[in-house]
Amino acid sequence: MDLDRKVSLDNLLKVAVICLQLFGAVTCYGGDFRFDPESIWRGTIRHSHFKGDPTVCADSNWNFNSAQIVCKSLGFTGAMFYRTLNNPSNPDDEPSVDCQFTSASNIPISCHLNSNCQEIAWAACQLPGYKGCYFGEGFPAYTRFPVSGGMTIEECLEGCRNHNGVRYRYAAPSKGTDCYCSDELPRSSLSRAASNCDQPCSGDAMQACGGASNTHSALYDTILGSCDGNAMTSNSGYVTSPGFPGEVSSGQSCDWHFETDYYNGTKISVIGAEVGAGGGLGVTFEVETIHRFTLETDDASFTIERDAESVGDRIWRTEEPIERTAAANILYKNMTIGFSPSASSVKWFVIKFEISTVDFEMPTTTPLPTTTPSRASSRIIDTHFLVMMVFALFLLHHMT
Predict the structure, then answer these.
(1) Which of 33, 125, 154, 279 is the one with CA 20 to 30 A from 199?
(2) CA-based diameter of the chain, in Å?
(3) What share of the chain is helix, strand, coil (3-state, %, to 5)?
């Protein structure tokens, strides 16, 4: 998988934005957002395409749907919850922007300056590994994990990864204070909108830990924030820094293994990475390559680096996905992603990968090693053989 390259992250993720000036007023169509303070997944919303990166006004047109659109434009699947905050600035000195959002698009229709904004927009994006908000007290075959301190998502995740020596597949924060663990998903009929799971966590009010009572629980795959793990994926997946959404908690090397279908196209996107000046984030990809009908192992890697002259920490994102298509007659299957940390320079990261099969037909002969036929297929072969033998004896009898 030819991904060996070095990625420059001097430019933030760019979203198509068109700005027009009419009668002295500037209106921008499209969204180019960032969080303040600098964060991968939560904070006050600022629009980076206006001079001075003004905050987004929340006096009107700011709701859960608006937060969903902002988070999707930043590469997440949606919003965890949203808030409105008092504007700490004098609107005359630091104007905000009003944005008109629509559910029919992933970007706001228009944004324009507002010099009389009283409240500003704040949002937290939904974390990778989120499985949904579910109705009911706990979920099938659940175990309650006792939280000794304040409840946070990372506390619940870590507890369910090692609860009395058992690693559970799912963690479910609930009621802002409780944590449940399970290896089973609830019934799909119990799924509810994410806005039902917006109760602040007792240990971090800027995270959401389920609903206001035990009637709603948020469900996460415990691979989120882990240093290892196995997961199935249809066409996309995420890896995050160990301990996420907290800071990197492990100095050891990490490996995540994803079981996938056959593919020959790959896209890698850095949703966000906070890397200190002069530091780097190295990620290695190992895939099973089917080349000329034999299985091989193929390594690929890319490195995120910052210049030593850079001042302070910032959130970096890939300008465009790193795309690669395999050579003709080559397919990949499965993916192992490895991370070698530098605790002094990397605080957080979220990386997304997508796979696809492009202009390729599976060969009529399977590229994998042949195996002994099953009993069912053997019976079919035996039946065909007997029919042919009877037919041959019938012809021989009539010819003699």
Answers:
(1) 33
(2) 111
(3) 10, 45, 45
Rounded alpha-carbon distances, angstroms, from residue 212 to 87, 157, 199, 208, 217? 27, 20, 5, 10, 9
| Encoded tokens for 52 | 């001075």
3-state secondary structure of 91: coil
- For the record, the structure tokens of 289 come out as 């390559």
Residues 140-175: tens digit of each pLDDT:
667 888 887 889 999 999 999 988 888 999 999 999
Strands 254-263 and 228-232: parallel
Q: Give the ranges where the chain is alpha helix by DSSP (H).
A: 64-73, 153-161, 375-399
Query: How far apart are the C-alpha atoms of 93 and 126, rounded to whole Å?
Result: 33
Q: Which pTM value belongs to this model?
A: 0.76
**How many whole angstroms from its chain centre is CA 363?**
32
pLDDT tens readout for residues 247-306? 886 667 788 888 888 888 888 888 888 876 655 666 677 777 765 555 555 665 556 555
DSSP state string for 92-141 = TTS-EEEEE--TTSSS-SEEEEES---EEEEEEEPPTTEEEEEESSS-TT
Q: With helix as H, strand as E and coil as C, how does 275-334 read? A: ECCCCEEEEEEEEEEEECCEEEEEEEEEEEECCCCCCCCEEECCCCCEEEECCCCEEEEE
Q: What does the pLDDT average to over 216-237?
A: 86
End-to-end CA distance of the chain: 65
